[in-house]
């Protein structure tokens, strides 16, 4: 670290935050009863606002030893089973989830000054759903997933490209090929919290909690 720490702190504090006067209004009184509906409304707002990768979400997991890891994933679906994502069953995140299904996801849409936080449990949606997700991927993405070995140390970029080229040839020769490791998962939340910055430099937090299949909601102190 060569940066002057005082300069760094000053620089960080001076970085722009939200364009407060551009933020869309949000009235918690008008929020739908199901947090999935509000999430989808905010996602659509993010798409309309031109947010890059609006469907990217952060997923935090903890393994059996309590070691926490977070990473970004693409949201693949949302239904009564929860928020779906897809990955390899041998990846560190999938291994952690097999040990401990408790997990959290967040979305952050800076242009809207909005965040959504989910906490709940993750389930593997089974081989047919994972295979359907795999088949829906473009050939290049199927080839990348077929390579596998996600997060293992890599000796050289060339080693990866050789493996990728071999996988792409397999995908092109057999369009029905499915990587056996590929899985779809869903996080079924027990808590969903919506956070929005407001034009008056404040914020609103609305938290939903699930009791079996019924949601209750209330404001939370900022
Ligand atoms: C925008 C974005 C989207 C991503 N989408 C996925 C995804 O859908 N599935 C996936 O396995 N990795 C995805 N990744 C890569 C992950 O963030 C992560 O690097 C990888 O899954 C390995 O994670 P793990 O070692 O914790 O298992 C994405 C990364 C970014 C930045």
From TrEMBL:
- Looking at the record, the residues that make up the Pyridoxine 5'-phosphate oxidase dimerisation C-terminal domain are 182-222
Q: Which GO terms describe its molecular function?
A: pyridoxamine phosphate oxidase activity
Q: Required co-factor? A: FMN
- This protein's source sits in the domain of life called Bacteria
EC number(s) on file: 1.4.3.5
Enumerate the spans annotated as Pyridoxamine 5'-phosphate oxidase N-terminal domain.
44-161
Which controlled-vocabulary keywords does the entry list? Flavoprotein, FMN, Oxidoreductase
Pfam families, per database record: PNP_phzG_C, PNPOx_N
Which InterPro entries does the UniProt record give? Pyridox_Oxase, Pyridox_Oxase_N, Pyridoxamine_oxidase_dimer_C, Split_barrel_FMN-bd
Cite the NCBIfam families for this sequence: PRK05679.1
Q: Give the family this protein belongs to, as stated in its UniProt record.
A: Belongs to the pyridoxamine 5'-phosphate oxidase family.
Q: What is this protein called?
A: Pyridoxal 5'-phosphate synthase
Please name the source species: Occultella glacieicola
């Amino acid at each position: 670290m060569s940066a002057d720490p005082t300069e760094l702190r000053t620089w960080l504090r001076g970085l722009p935050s939200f364009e407060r006067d551009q933020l869309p209004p949000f009235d918690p009184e008008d929020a739908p009863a199901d947090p999935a509906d509000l999430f989808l409304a905010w996602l659509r707002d993010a798409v309309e606002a031109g947010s890059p990768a609006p469907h990217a979400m952060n997923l935090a997991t903890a393994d059996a030893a309590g070691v926490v890891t977070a990473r970004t994933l693409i949201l693949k679906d949302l239904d009564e089973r929860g928020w779906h994502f897809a990955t390899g069953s041998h990846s560190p995140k999938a291994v952690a989830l097999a040990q401990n299904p408790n997990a959290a996801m967040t979305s952050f849409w800076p242009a809207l000054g909005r965040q959504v936080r989910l906490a709940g449990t993750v389930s593997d949606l089974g081989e047919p759903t994972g295979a359907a997700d795999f088949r829906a991927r473009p050939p290049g993405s199927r080839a990348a997933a077929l390579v596998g070995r996600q997060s293992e140390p890599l000796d050289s970029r060339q080693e990866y490209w050789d493996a990728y080229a071999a996988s792409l040839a397999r995908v092109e020769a057999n369009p029905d090929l499915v990587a056996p490791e590929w899985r779809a998962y869903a996080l079924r939340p027990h808590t969903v919290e919506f956070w929005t910055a407001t034009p008056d430099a404040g914020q609103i937090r609305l938290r939903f909690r699930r009791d079996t299949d019924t949601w209750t909601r209330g404001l939370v102190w900022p």
